[in-house]
């Protein structure tokens, strides 16, 4: 029986595991995909203290290294179901585990436009990761969709590789950080297309050859990068009564859900600020609070 099972090895889950290990808890980290989570897809991080200008994969590597150095137990197994009773059960693709407490730090995955052939073109002209796929579009014309910080920062990254980047946003105003908006506007090879939307993907030989916009405009681009927000990873909570809003888990100011012994932190929770630094601190806070509660109960 574990004291704590943490679902997700993004920065929030790893930060929580460090605090749990230091508190001498029997802790297990579970990850269904890549340790580091969303960070792996960020080209450059300028706002995580002590790591100025670090690449996302480098930060993810450092985090994973820390897990290994601290001998924190982890398993690369996807969680499929959890059952919540006095003893909590976590089922994965490979195993069934028992635990006293659970921290859900499963993050979220990129939202897609919902256009015909979009999924089929992933890796063939459509991408949700500039860092992974940007280099395939060296000196080519591409487009980025979205108006948040992700679209802005990744458009800037791509503009250093591609010959031209169209940044397509459905409104006049961007919702991303002011500093990023300023940089995007100053970049010579980024062309803004505002108040417009992609409505059709044009294909040739199973590869993206261009896009059609709502305004009727067509663009002969070879790459389309989609940054229009995220959907939280909560499918495995289907057999629980954990309270959610818009798919995001509701927590109190100690990261506690409505179920005793179940906490959530990072991007999977409903909140105002989705930043690397806050995800890390929420994971730590959840464990500190959980441990204080457990100590006061004994
Ligand atoms: P976001 O802030 O939710 O922005 C999503 C954008 O996509 C919005 O501009 C939205 O348009 C647009 N959009 C949504 N659905 C669309 C659709 N179907 N068609 C066309 N456009 C659509 O998401 P994000 O940019 O990924 O950022 C997520 C969080 O991470 C934010 O809190 C952000 O601050 C943080 N972040 C920070 C940094 C950083 O460098 N500090 C970098 C990346 C992300 P509307 O504006 O019209 O709704």
| Radius of gyration from the alpha-carbon trace, in angstroms | 21 Å
- CATH class term of the largest domain: Alpha Beta
Helix content: 10-25%
Number of helices: 6
Total tally of structural domains:
2
CATH homologous superfamily heading of the largest domain: FAD/NAD(P)-binding domain
Per the CATH scheme, the topology name of the largest domain is: FAD/NAD(P)-binding domain
The CATH architecture classification of the largest domain is: 3-Layer(bba) Sandwich
Structural class: alpha/beta
| Portion in beta strands | 25-35%
Low-confidence sequence ranges: none
How would you sum up this structure, described in words?
There is one protein chain. The chain is of the alpha/beta class and 298 residues long. 24% of the residues lie in helices and 28% in strands. It contains 6 helices and 19 strands. The strands form 5 sheets. Strands 1, 2, 3, 4, 5, 6 and 19 form a 7-stranded mixed beta sheet that branches. The mean pLDDT is 95. Bound molecules: NADP nicotinamide-adenine-dinucleotide phosphate (NAP).
In a few lines, what is going on in this structure?
The chain is α/β, with parallel strands linked by helices and 298 residues long. The chain is built from six helices and 19 strands. The protein has two domains: 2-109 and 230-296, 3-Layer(bba) Sandwich (FAD/NAD(P)-binding domain); 112-226, FAD/NAD(P)-binding domain.
Layout of helices and strands:
Layout: E1 2-7, H1 11-22, E2 27-30, H2 56-69, E3 73-75, E4 79-84, E5 88-92, E6 96-104, E7 108-110, E8 126-127, H3 130-133, E9 141-145, H4 149-159, E10 164-169, H5 178-186, E11 190-194, E12 198-204, E13 207-213, E14 218-219, E15 223-226, E16 230-232, E17 244-245, E18 248-249, E19 262-264, H6 276-297
Parallel strand pairs: 1-2, 1-6, 2-3, 6-19, 8-15, 9-10, 9-15, 10-11
Antiparallel strand pairs: 4-5, 5-6, 7-16, 12-13, 13-14, 17-18
Helix pairs in contact: 1-2, 1-6, 4-5
The structure holds NADP nicotinamide-adenine-dinucleotide phosphate (NAP).
């Amino acid at each position: 029986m574990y004291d704590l099972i943490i679902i997700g090895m993004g920065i929030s889950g790893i930060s929580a595991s460090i605090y749990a290990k230091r508190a001498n808890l029997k802790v297990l980290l579970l990850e269904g995909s890549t340790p580091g989570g969303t960070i792996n897809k960020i080209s450059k991080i300028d706002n995580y203290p002590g790591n100025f200008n670090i690449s996302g994969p480098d930060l993810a590597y450092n985090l994973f290294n820390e897990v290994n150095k601290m001998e924190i137990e982890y398993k690369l197994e996807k969680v499929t179901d959890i059952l919540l009773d006095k003893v909590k059960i976590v089922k994965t693709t490979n195993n069934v585990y028992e635990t006293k407490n659970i921290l859900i730090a499963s993050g979220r995955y990129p939202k897609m436009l919902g256009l015909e052939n979009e999924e089929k073109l992933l890796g063939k002209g459509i991408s949700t990761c500039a860092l992974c796929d940007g280099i395939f579009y060296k000196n080519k014309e591409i487009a980025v969709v979205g108006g948040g910080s992700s679209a802005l920062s990744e458009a800037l990254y791509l503009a250093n590789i591609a010959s031209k980047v169209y940044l397509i946003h459905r409104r006049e105003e961007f919702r991303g950080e002011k500093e990023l908006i300023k940089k995007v506007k100053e970049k010579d090879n980024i062309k803004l297309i505002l108040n417009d939307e992609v409505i059709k993907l044009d294909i040739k030989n199973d590869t993206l050859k261009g896009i059609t916009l709502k305004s009727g405009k067509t663009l002969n681009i070879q790459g389309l990068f989609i940054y229009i927000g995220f959907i939280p990873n909560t499918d495995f909570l289907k057999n629980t009564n954990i309270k959610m809003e818009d798919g995001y888990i509701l927590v109190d100011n100690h990261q506690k859900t409505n179920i005793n012994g179940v906490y959530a932190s990072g991007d999977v929770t409903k909140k105002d600020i989705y930043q690397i630094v806050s995800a890390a601190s929420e994971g730590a806070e959840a464990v500190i609070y959980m441990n204080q509660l457990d100590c006061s109960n004994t």
